[in-house]
Amino acid sequence: MSPRMAAVRAGWRRGRIELRQSFTNRPELFSHFLWPVLMLVALFFLRHRDFGSTGLLLGTFALPGILGMNAAMGMVSMSQQLTADREDGTLLRAKATPNGMLGYLVGKVVSVAGGLLADLAILLIPALLIVDNLALGSFGGWFTLLWVLALGMVATLPIGAVLGSVFTTARSQGLLQLPVLGLIAISGVFYPITALPDWLEWIGQVFPIYWMGLGMRSALLPDSTVVVEIGDSWRHLETVGVLGVWAVAGLLVAPVVLRRMARRESGSKVAERRERALRRVA
Amino acid sequence: MVLAVDGLRMRYGDAEVLHDVSFSAGHGEVVVLLGPNGAGKSTTIEILEGFRLRSAGTVEVLGVDPAAGDERWRSRLGIVLQSWRDHGNWRIRELLHHLGTYYAAYATNTIERPWDTDELLAAVGLSSHAEQKIKTLSGGQRRRLDVAIGIVGRPEVLFLDEPTAGFDPEARYEFHNLVRRLAAEHETTILLTTHDLDEASKLAHRILILNAGRIVAAGTTGELTALIAGEDEVRWSVDGQHFHTTTPDSTGLARDLFTQYGASVRDLEVRRASLEDTYLALVRGQEVAL
């Protein structure tokens, strides 16, 4: 087996080990359940609320959007993990190992993507009991769900890696949360994007969160509900277009930025950050 | 030569941190870079590891310029940095085994890679902790794990940046044995930084004293000690009166004392110049001829 192939396989195992770890230690287990539980509570209160004269229930509308949003949040966890791994020396360890960066990245994609899928299941399965009127059971619906998820992850995870390379400290990662929350607010997750002023509607449509939510709605809602969407259409073509552009951009930029970041890593950099972190605690 | 450094310079902006550093090391040789904090030890080692680009000079590690080292070259190096705190949720055996798999493809007819996980655990004295989570280890145990990871690929060159910081005396003793064994049995070339003189004199085949970015002295412990001749310290008393002097010829001084005072010389004490004296003299900026 070639060394690079061996590293890819090692990365796959690495991802599985880290995924298992994230479900066997308390703080991470807590974060796996916190968000889904909060969302389920919100869905519970929205489940009977009517939504204009469309006959659609707000909870029903929101569930797919939440799923899409959660999937897009893989971007944030990718970015945070990269920063954390840089601070504690994991990344430098990978750099000191032959083909270690390759194994590291494969492992990260496997663990983040696996964690996302697990989180989606944690939310979706109980939500099916709370929310009515979903269009489940059609093959086409599940197929759409899968391709939107897959394409969405390819669009968002590399961007997360870029953000993780650019924002170097845990503190700056915290600042990143604010614009992300703002983006969620204008992405039509809990309420149709058409309720927003035109210019905000346009901004929302630039980013992947809206399109992943739209794709999920097209997969899980009955076709009759399409009337609340822009242009009364699920716009699959546009979904593929926008997510595709993000994916290509991310896959082009991420290797460059990651390589630059890796090149700059050294023992004294890690020691420096460690000292800074200790000063913050003291 | 396994390590060959000639005229190495490093500059950050206007600040020059390494001036014209040159040294070399062969197979199985233990070279210790000794010097105070900020002398340039870590910078030197990072350049050799390929983690930092130098400003000038030639550097070869296993015949390759570290700035152009590929993954095969990297598989022949072992690196132990000053501070790791990565992989806290992993178990010891799990991580050692995992990192070992990256080296398997680089095994040769003469070097089996990676090191067997259980053998390696035994070699660094962590067998009884194999299933423990890394974040629960004590500082000394963690350091031994770092060393284990550094040698999991059976490196031909091992870089150790202040490996024993925070060790208790027993752990230090064990670690020194491990380093000697690696050099003697596995022909591993070891470059180690420390500011602990005692450690340097115990381990090194050769010591390089680095101060303010220059190698101010190089040699074996004995050679370096001999550099400062005439610094033996002699104390004695005659008729209850105490005396104290330093002399290049303590034996001659003692002979004269006995000739002159005979049996009334008491409390005679001779302390030979130590590596510590040499070291302190050097880092205080005294010029010592090589």
Give a brief description.
Chain A has 282 residues and is mainly α. Chain A contains twelve helices and two strands. The longest helix of chain B has 18 residues, at 169-186.
- In spatial order, strands of the major sheet of chain B run 5-6-7-3-8-9
CATH classification class of the largest domain in chain B: Alpha Beta
- Major sheet of chain A, described briefly? 2 strands, antiparallel
- The assigned structural class of chain B equals alpha/beta
What is the CATH fold-level name of the largest domain in chain B? Rossmann fold
Total strand segments of chain B? 12
- What percent of the residues of chain B sit in helical stretches (DSSP H or I)? 25-40%
What would you call the shape of chain A?
elongated
If strands are numbered along the chain, what order do they take across the biggest sheet of chain A? Answer: 1-2
* Poorly predicted sequence stretches spanning 5 or more consecutive residues of chain B: none
| Straight-line N-to-C gap of chain B | 22 Å
**How is the main sheet of chain B built?**
6 strands, mixed
Main location (chain B): membrane
Pfam families (chain B): ABC_tran (PF00005)
Domain ABC transporter (chain B): 3-237
GO biological process, one term (chain B): response to antibiotic
Question: How is this fold's topology laid out?
Answer:
The complex is a heterodimer of chains A (282) and B (290).
Chain A (H helix, E strand, L loop, with lengths): L2 H20 L3 H21 L3 E2 L4 E2 H15 L1 H15 L1 H7 L3 H31 L8 H28 L3 H16 L12 H7 L3 H13 L15 H29 L2 H15 L1
Antiparallel strand pairs in A: 1-2
Helix pairs in contact in A: 1-6, 2-3, 2-6, 3-6, 3-10, 4-6, 4-7, 4-8, 5-6, 7-10, 7-11, 10-11
Chain B lengths: L2 E10 L2 E11 L4 E5 L6 H9 L6 E6 L9 H4 L2 E4 L11 H10 L15 H7 L15 H13 L5 E5 L7 H18 L2 E6 L2 H7 L2 E6 L2 E6 L1 H7 L4 E7 L2 E7 L2 H12 L3 E7 L3 H9 L7
Parallel strand pairs in B: 3-7, 3-8, 5-6, 6-7
Antiparallel strand pairs in B: 1-2, 1-4, 8-9, 10-11, 10-12
Helix pairs in contact in B: 8-10
